[in-house]
Amino acid sequence: ASSGTGWTNKWRDVAAGAFAISSGNLSAPTTYPTPLGNKLTGNPTGVEILDFRGFNAFDSGRIYVSVLVQAQNPIASSFAGVSLMNGSTEEIFIGKRWGSGQFGVEAPNSSGSATDSSFNFGNGTYLMVGMYDFDKDYFRGQIYNSGDSISLTEPTSWQVGNAIATAVSRIDGLRLGAKEAGSSVNFDEVRVAATWEELINAAPNEPTV
Asked: Of 1, 21, 90, 112, which has the highest C-beta tally within 10 A?
């Protein structure tokens, strides 16, 4: 789970032991890269569990992130997802937001940015995809079931998104997190890229994280 290329450090728990590396992988949609190595597993019952990892900074164009996630019986008062970070500052959240039963996105530093899709976030295994555009100051989110097929080209219409009032100047890491999202939560095959095609490995000659 701490392998891969393009990262500047290994996974770092906020609280020691919040996540553990466990064997096996989550099921991915077709056309998405086959998960390798292991996955991260944690128990978010009654506690917020967070795990950070850094990469070379993005500050122009677009940044795309994707992650497989599986939560056991998440309730409305819970969250599970991935955050794009600028140092220790959370800039964009993609996943199941606290107080919502749907997949959504939010920019914590921009009021009114929280937006949910109609996709119910339940007990399944999902691929979550997020994007931020530094030039146009908007962010988008997309979620797939594990058995879905992903287009090799970026969708013209995303499931959810919003403009951002406070522009993000830099993103240099991500954070996986959950709280009260059932008795266990798993994250797998985290990827970061500058284009959709790099993200799903449709352009294998270009570097990806």
From this structure: 1
Q: Is 37 helix (H, G, I), strand (E, B) or coil?
A: coil
Determine the pLDDT at residue 10: 82
Mean pLDDT, the chain, rounded, equals 88
Q: How far is CA 145 from CA 45, 70, 102, in A?
A: 24, 10, 13
What is the C-alpha to C-alpha distance for residues 54 and 92, in angstroms, rounded to an integer?
15
Alpha-carbon span 8 to 32, nearest angstrom = 24
Return the structure tokens found at 202. 């449709």
What one-letter code names the amino acid at 147?
Answer: G
Cβ(52)–Cβ(11) below 8 Å: yes
How far is 116 from 193, CA to CA, in rounded Å? 24
Amino acid code (one letter) for 29? P
C-alpha–C-alpha distance, residues 84 and 52, integer Å: 10
Task: Tell me which residue of 54, 60, 50 sits closest to 10, measured CA to CA.
Answer: 54
Q: Which residues contact 143 (CB under 8 A, 6 or more apart)?
A: 103, 117, 119, 121, 126, 127, 128, 129, 159
pTM beyond 0.85, yes or no? yes
Q: 164 and 46 in contact (C-beta within 8 Å)?
A: no
Q: Which amino acid is at 8?
A: T
Nearest partner of 146 among 44, 42, 28, judged by Cα: 28
CA separation (Å) from 147 to 38, 127, 198? 20, 10, 21
Cα separation, 141 vs 104, in Å, equals 7
